[in-house]
Design a protein that fits this description.
InterPro entries: DExx_box_DNA_helicase_dom_sf, DNA_helicase_UvrD-like_C, DNA_helicase_UvrD/REP, P-loop_NTPase, UvrD-like_ATP-bd. It is an enzyme of class 5 (isomerase). It catalyses: Couples ATP hydrolysis with the unwinding of duplex DNA by translocating in the 3'-5' direction; ATP + H2O = ADP + phosphate + H(+). Pfam families: UvrD-helicase, UvrD_C. Residues 8-286 form the UvrD-like helicase ATP-binding domain. The chain has 730 residues and is α/β, with parallel strands linked by helices. The chain has five domains: 2-101 and 191-280, Rossmann fold; 113-183, Arc Repressor Mutant, subunit A (Orthogonal Bundle); 316-380 and 550-647, Rossmann fold, CATH 3.40.50; 384-526, PCRA, domain 4; 682-727. Strands 9, 10, 11, 12, 13, 14, 15 and 16 form an eight-stranded mixed β-sheet that branches. Strand 19 and strand 20 form a beta hairpin. It is globular and about 85 Å long. It starts with 11 loop residues before the first helix and ends with a strand. It binds a DNA duplex (15 and 10 nucleotides) through helix 4, helix 8 and helix 25.
DNA sequence: TTTTAGACCATTTTT
DNA sequence: TGGTCTAAAA
């Protein structure tokens, strides 16, 4: 078989990675160096050259998006769907293992996945049960604590308070939480990994089975693995399985949620015989952009070492813009973005990146004002919406009566007269008898522990769920869901929502559509069948928990893209704006104190810079409103870490006055600072006959129609026609 | 049960 | 400043 197409158009290190012998390899893949391409070609190589069955290949990613992309690119390259291959996220694959071996993992067959919202609710409930003061014991913090322990592979019994009572309380909550999960057959995200790791640990036969089955293991975004994920991989790999770990230590930006950059640094010693392959040729950005990125990241210690290069040419300089304030920064960005569009560029080629979500508001306002369509990434995802979560809770309850999280969520949604008092009685009973809320409800009614009214409200709910489940046996899943939505009153309930009612009803309809689609495309493979995975509804619920879907329905219009630097990882855009390059915003004040945190911020900056293909703007504001407080700002140290000759300042700080008659830049050059100054400039203090003193914060138009916005000390912000207002400079 | 007023507080986010 | 959450009032 001719396999030259697998390596033909690759550069030497890419080729080396793709055609490496069956041994472990660490591929240090710089930004834009063709990482996914290498992974996909490697898999094809394993199948076509090494004659490894797809059944013996496992490829692990972090996000569903990455897993889907890998799958479709493999299919495109091979021209067929490789059956039996395990491609998925860590969580997805761990989940698959637990489903297949639920008995050995000590889980009920219908165990359910607890997402972060359910988890928080459950922790809150446990805090109440343990009589903890929510002021002192923030459930969010406790949840974070539990997850952090699981990410480290630690169970409550592995933890020792060493007499520290507050530490002991945390451990107690963790323990109670774990018991509640076990009782209800619920598994959170961290548990998926921890439990499947323990499954292998406790069942050597099973482990050996998988070790023999898989002959090659590939891991994407290796720098993002946490301790348990790494342990999971090592255990599966054993002594012999060749692992190809692909990652970039310079793009490790998730340390704060447990990712361990050491994993990539220790890989070669933990997997003996591993060679390192560096992919340093970049196919994305101009040389200027890469030089800036290289120079910046060189300030970090203990790197694996990598220098990105390109033969694509020097390109334009990086434009640095010092805005007067955040409003003006936003306006500048919008203006430049529109210029791109005016010159024939697509809006979707433009990305505005920022460090924190709070920055998006001002940017949005500026975009709206200018009538520029935009799209924000990272909003609420489909399966995270209130109405969808409620609907799923009903489905989960139909599937598993002991799912307390689901029960708590919808027992009184829509309101059916089950108040807090009834619920408290049921909760108390459940706690005493160590049973689920469902069972407690049933027994409480039977034993007449509830008032007639309470029982009269609770019983119909129980019957509703029972009835729905009976009906579901003869109906297609989508029809079951539609029926549930009607009979439960959820549609009616959510329709009533004041401003979001319409959208909510639509989303519920969309859920039915999604279910129908899922149903049509879903077919368990032989392996799933053997594992008893034959229930569509269960599979649908699982996938909703593991993949929250997109934030917005597919957007066809040509939009400017707004997102945080974190969510920009893995993406690329011809034109990129990085906004808010100010000390204590970026690097963020929460991270700049300790050296580790600062280095991660720097990597985040590196990620941002390397998103840009052609042109990069870095902007900051000399003054920014923070929690209502106007603050003076200084530009980010990261700007200083980029060699000056790569930068081009559009305006130099406050020292250059920006006259009101300033002609907005229209020529291709962005350096247009030398315009004769007139009387007024942004940030100037002025005095008005009626309103008194204030600061000039904004302007629009020119000549006789020019208007200015002045923030007056006494009467606040006002727009004034410059030619009428008789302003005086102070 | 729903609405409203004050308190509180404030990176980054996927599974 | 504004969004979220809890507690009090309609």
């Amino acid at each position: 078989m001719d396999v030259s197409h697998l390596i033909d158009r690759l550069n030497p290190p890419q080729r080396e990675a793709v055609s490496a012998p069956l041994q472990s390899r660490l591929v240090l893949a710089g930004a834009g160096s063709g990482k996914t391409r290498v992974l996909v070609h490697r898999i094809a190589w394993l199948i076509q050259v090494e004659q490894i069955s797809p059944y013996a290949i496992m490829a692990v990613t972090f996000t569903n998006k990455a897993a889907k992309e890998m799958r479709s690119r493999i299919e495109a390259l091979l021209g067929l769907t490789p059956r039996g291959m395990w491609v998925g996220t860590f969580h997805g694959l761990a989940h698959r293992l637990l489903r297949a071996h639920h008995r050995e993992a000590n889980l009920p067959e219908n165990f359910q996945i607890l997402d972060s919202d359910d988890q928080l609710r459950l922790v809150k409930r446990i805090c109440r049960e343990l009589n903890l003061d929510e002021k002192r014991w923030d459930p969010k913090e406790l949840t974070w604590f539990i997850n952090a322990q699981k990410d480290e592979g630690l169970r409550p019994q592995h933890l020792d308070s060493y007499g520290d009572s507050s530490w002991q309380t945390r451990i107690d909550v963790y323990k109670a939480y774990e018991e509640a999960c076990q009782r209800g057959g619920m598994v959170d995200f961290g548990e998926l990994l921890l439990r499947s790791h323990e499954l292998w640990l406790n069942q050597p036969v099973l482990l050996r089975h998988y070790q023999q089955r898989f002959q090659a293991l590939l891991v994407d975004e290796f720098q993002d693995t946490n301790k348990i994920q790494y342990a999971w991989l090592r255990m599966l790999a054993g002594e012999r399985m060749p692992v190809m770990a692909v990652g970039d230590d310079d793009q490790s930006i998730y340390g704060w949620r447990g990712a361990r950059i050491e994993n990539i640094q220790n890989f070669t010693s933990d997997f003996p015989g591993t060679e390192i392959i560096r992919l340093e040729q970049n196919y994305r950005s101009t040389d200027t952009i890469l030089q800036a990125a290289n120079a910046l990241i060189a300030n970090n210690q203990g790197r694996m070492g990598k220098q990105l290069w390109t033969d694509s040419g020097e390109g334009e300089k990086i434009a640095v813009y010092s805005a007067f304030n955040e409003q003006e920064e936003a306006r500048f960005i919008v203006e430049q973005a529109e210029k791109w569009a005016d010159q024939g560029g697509m809006r979707q080629e433009v990305a505005i990146l920022y460090r924190s979500n709070a920055q998006s508001r001002v940017l949005e306002e500026a975009l709206v004002r200018a009538g520029v369509p935009y799209r924000i990434y990272g909003g609420q995802r489909f399966y995270d919406r209130l109405e969808i979560r409620n609907a799923l809770a009903y489905l989960r309850l139909m599937q598993n009566r002991h799912d307390d999280a689901a029960m708590e969520r919808v027992i009184n949604v829509p309101t059916r007269g089950i108040g807090s008092k009834t619920l408290e009685t049921v909760r108390d009973y459940a706690r005493q008898q160590q049973v689920s809320l469902w069972q407690a409800s049933v027994e409480a009614i039977e034993r007449r522990l509830l008032s007639g009214r309470a029982a009269g409200a609770l019983l119909p709910f129980i019957e509703l769920i029972n009835q729905l489940q009976r009906d579901s046996e003869s109906l297609a899943m989508a029809d079951t869901i539609a029926l549930m939505l009607q009979h439960s009153g959820l549609v009616e309930h959510h329709e009533k929502d004041k401003d979001k009612g319409e959208a909510r009803a639509e989303n519920l309809q969309e859920l039915v559509n999604a279910a129908r689609q899922f149903e049509q495309s879903w077919s368990p493979d032989e392996e799933d069948e053997q594992a008893g995975l034959t229930d569509v509804l269960a599979a649908f619920i699982d996938q909703a928990a593991l993949d929250a879907g997109d934030a917005q329905a597919a957007e066809f219009s040509d939009c400017v893209q707004l997102m945080t630097l974190h969510s920009a990882k893995g993406l690329e855009f011809p034109l990129v704006f990085m906004a808010g390059l100010e000390e204590s915003l970026f690097p963020h004040s929460m991270s700049m104190e300790d050296p580790q945190g600062l280095e991660e911020e720097r990597r985040l900056c590196y990620v941002g810079i390397t998103r840009a293909r052609q042109k990069l703007f870095m902007t900051w504001a000399e003054s920014r409103r923070f929690y209502g407080q106007e603050e003076r700002r200084t530009h980010s140290r990261f700007l200083r870490e980029i060699p000056e000759q790569l930068l081009e300042e559009v305006r130099l700080g406050a020292s250059i006055r920006r006259p009101l008659s300033f002609q907005r830049p229209t020529s291709p050059s962005f350096a247009e600072a030398e315009v004769p100054a007139t009387e007024f400039y942004l940030g100037q203090r002025v005095i008005h006959g009626t309103f008194g003193e204030g600061i000039l914060t904004n302007f629009e138009g020119q000549g006789p129609k020019a208007r200015v916005e002045v923030n007056f000390d006494d009467v606040g912000s006002k727009w004034l026609i410059l030619s009428m207002a008789k302003l005086q400079a102070l």
